[in-house]
């Protein structure tokens, strides 16, 4: 018999018992197979209605999502790594009264899309979140970015970053009772136009490569309300020179210029639509 015990912050005690089917199977293997899904269900029920800022870092790691208490500030300001959930919620608050919905291009496993949707629900921001991703890894066009150079990292290849699926992200949405998210599976060239009639207040572009940034900027810019924000996750990030190339080319004929947000020393650049 394996017992899994979880505690809420107010001391409430949740206990789940599992009977192992094979005595010869190591307990650690059984725990990994059985306990993690149970703990995800328990912790989602315990925390989904509590302020995101109060969630323990362990809960974020258990669900593979970003939570504020798991953020470790960088020792110096730098543009590498993810957008930082604190940067994202700051911009959500800043754009809460701007007409339009929210988009994320490059959902992967939902590490930022899901906590953004949770935070918006908890702060009474009645926007729909659209998540665009192939859910099958990078397209072949990443070869152009490989030829541009930049730092080499694991997954920077056709098919890289494919350790996800639409079903995985959808299961997390169900677990947290999120009805404010719409997922769009496929290449951006095939999916963005499904929502061509929408307006947006915030677009988080976390799409890494030149072709993807070019497609997303061309799609979202004319659909952004005045004062809306386009956040550029990879600008100046050493592995992704294609982002800089796409953004610089796009802004060359426009009145907007790049702005910088750097909470917890996570530097990210963004555009405010004029």
What report would you give on this structure?
With 274 residues, the chain is an alpha/beta fold. The chain folds into 2 domains: 2-47, no CATH class; 69-272, Vaccinia Virus protein VP39 (Rossmann fold, 3-Layer(aba) Sandwich), CATH 3.40.50.150. Helices cover 33% and strands 18% of the residues. The chain has 9 helices and 9 strands. It has helices at 27-47, 57-63, 85-94, 113-122, 142-148, 166-175, 188-191, 210-220, 241-251; strands spanning 2-7, 13-18, 101-105, 129-133, 181-185, 200-205, 224-232, 259-261, 268-272. The strands form 2 sheets. The chain has a 7-stranded mixed beta sheet, sandwiched between helices. Helix 3 packs across helix 4 (113-122) and helix 8 (210-220) packs parallel to helix 9 (241-251). The longest helix is centred in the first third of the chain and has 21 residues, at 27-47. The radius of gyration is 20 Å and the shape is globular. The relative contact order is 0.14. The model is unreliable at 1-25 (pLDDT under 50).
């Amino acid at each position: 018999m394996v017992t899994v015990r979880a505690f809420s912050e107010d001391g409430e005690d949740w206990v789940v018992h599992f009977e192992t089917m094979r005595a010869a199977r190591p307990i650690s293997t059984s725990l990994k197979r059985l306990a993690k899904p149970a703990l995800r269900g328990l912790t989602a029920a315990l925390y989904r209605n509590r302020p995101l800022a109060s969630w323990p870092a362990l809960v974020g790691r258990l669900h593979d999502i970003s939570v504020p208490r798991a953020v470790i500030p960088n020792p110096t300001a730098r543009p590498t790594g993810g957008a930082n959930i604190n940067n994202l919620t700051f911009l959500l608050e800043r754009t809460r009264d701007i007409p339009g919905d929210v988009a994320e291009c490059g959902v992967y496993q939902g590490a930022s899309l899901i906590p953004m949707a949770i935070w918006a629900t908890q702060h009474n921001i009645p926007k729909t979140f659209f998540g665009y991703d192939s859910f099958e890894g990078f397209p072949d066009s990443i070869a152009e970015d490989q030829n541009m150079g930049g730092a080499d990292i694991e997954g920077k290849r056709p098919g890289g970053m494919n350790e996800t699926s639409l079903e995985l992200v959808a299961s997390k949405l169900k677990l947290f009772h999120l009805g404010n998210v719409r997922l769009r599976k496929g290449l951006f060239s095939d999916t963005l136009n499904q929502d061509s009639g929408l307006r947006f207040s915030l677009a988080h572009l976390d799409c890494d490569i030149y072709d993807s940034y070019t497609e997303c900027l061309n799609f979202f810019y004319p659909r952004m309300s005045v004062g809306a924000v386009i956040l550029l996750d990879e600008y100046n990030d050493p592995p992704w020179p294609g982002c800089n190339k796409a953004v610089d080319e796009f802004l060359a004929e426009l009145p907007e210029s790049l702005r910088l947000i750097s909470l917890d020393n996570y530097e990210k650049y963004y555009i405010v639509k004029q």
